[in-house]
Structure formats: C-alpha cells, structure tokens
C-alpha cells in the first residue's frame, strides 16, 4: 500500500480550480481517502490550504503516524500562477516528509482513458487534449507532447481524431472528429495512477516543475526598469 498526496492547480480560465486529495494505492487499485476542490483562480493559488485540509481529514498531517509516501502534482499545461503554487506546495510537502516528488501532465493522467476511447472508436488516428490558455490561445496535448496554439493560426491535422478537454469545442476540426468535451480534468485516481507509473519508470522521467508552454504575459515597462537602489 502506498499513500499519495495529489495536487492539481493547472486548470486555467473559467475552468480554474484547485484540487487536493489523499489517495491510497493497493496493487492496481486506487482509492481516495480524502479530497477537496474549490473553484476559481484564488483556490488554485491557495492550494496549500486545500492540501492541509485533506491531510488532516486523512490523518496524514504533520506529526501523525501515517504520512504521504509519494507526492504527485500536475505540472501543466495550464495556469502560470496555479502551476507555480501547486508545484511549490508539492515540493514543500515532499521535502517535509521525505517523500519522492513526481510530476505528470494532464494528458499523461488522462491518457489511459483517452487511449481506451480511441481503441473503442476504431479507425482513429489518436487523441488530442485541448485546454484553455490565455485569450485567443489553447494548449493542445497529444501522446507526442504539448504545444500552445493561437486559434487564428490553427491548422487541423489530417485524419480522424478524438478531441477532449475544456476547450475542445473552440478548435475547428475535420469532419468525423470525435468530440468529448465532457472529459476535461483528470480525477485524483487518474493522477495518482500516472504518478505511480512515472515513479516506477513506466513513464519516461520528467521534472516536477511547471510546464510553461507559453511565455509569460508580463512585459517590461516602456521606460525600462528602475535603477537599483544605492
């Protein structure tokens, strides 16, 4: 049995939220012991409070006999602030309890479900997870990686694709595309499964750091930066 703390603050835009869960892995089964989720950008940024709540509910808080043995976090793609907050919180908890820290993407967590749907559909070229980015842009993740796409520059790929994600309906797709806009965010169990797969070496290594696909929106002041104080 493995005790896993799962954190996800990746969702952006109207879908922004923070999620924390305590999950137990027993063999191939994953069960949620405690979970909380709160909508809004502020919830994602304050994910440390959500983590403290679920750890207390599960009896895994600091000083308790049982502690997380693995800490998993969704590293993106998604909200800059949500990713920074959740990855920093995950790193802090992992360091505090001496547990390994593992990062996964949203697509990696949803991949088993999406691949099963592709197989079920038949004659499908693959899956595509489309999620919200900044205005006029989306993140597109496939089994080969992730990219940020401007809606105005989007060129639909050839073939027949299964398209999921909270922004799936914003991208024009060729006739025959299978739209699954109901599949948007991985569950705590799905994230924990991907975390364990990476920890076991089934998934290729990835640093548990924010996956920044787009450059930051912040710009230097027109007059330049102020001189350093003397």
Description:
The radius of gyration is 19 Å and the shape is globular. Helix 4 (106-121) crosses helix 5. With 230 residues, the protein is an alpha/beta fold. The termini are far apart. The protein has a five-stranded mixed beta sheet with strand order 3-2-1-4-5, sandwiched between helices. It has a five-stranded mixed beta sheet with strand order 8-7-6-9-10, with helices on one face. It has helices spanning 41-45, 47-58, 80-97, 106-121, 188-199, and strands spanning 2-8, 17-26, 29-39, 70-76, 101-105, 126-132, 137-142, 145-150, 161-164, 178-180. It has two domains: 2-106 and 185-199, Nucleotidyltransferase, domain 5 (2-Layer Sandwich); 107-180, no CATH class.
Task: Describe the protein's topology.
Elements: E1 2-8, E2 17-26, E3 29-39, H1 41-45, H2 47-58, E4 70-76, H3 80-97, E5 101-105, H4 106-121, E6 126-132, E7 137-142, E8 145-150, E9 161-164, E10 178-180, H5 188-199
Parallel strand pairs: 1-4, 4-5, 6-9, 9-10
Antiparallel strand pairs: 1-2, 2-3, 6-7, 7-8
Helix pairs in contact: 4-5
Number of strands: 10
Q: On the 0-100 scale, what is the average pLDDT?
A: 91
Q: Identify the CATH homologous superfamily of the largest domain.
A: ATPase, nucleotide binding domain
Q: Predict the CATH topology of the largest domain.
A: Nucleotidyltransferase, domain 5
CATH architecture of the largest domain: 2-Layer Sandwich
What structural class do the secondary elements suggest?
alpha/beta
Number of individual domains: 2
Shape: globular
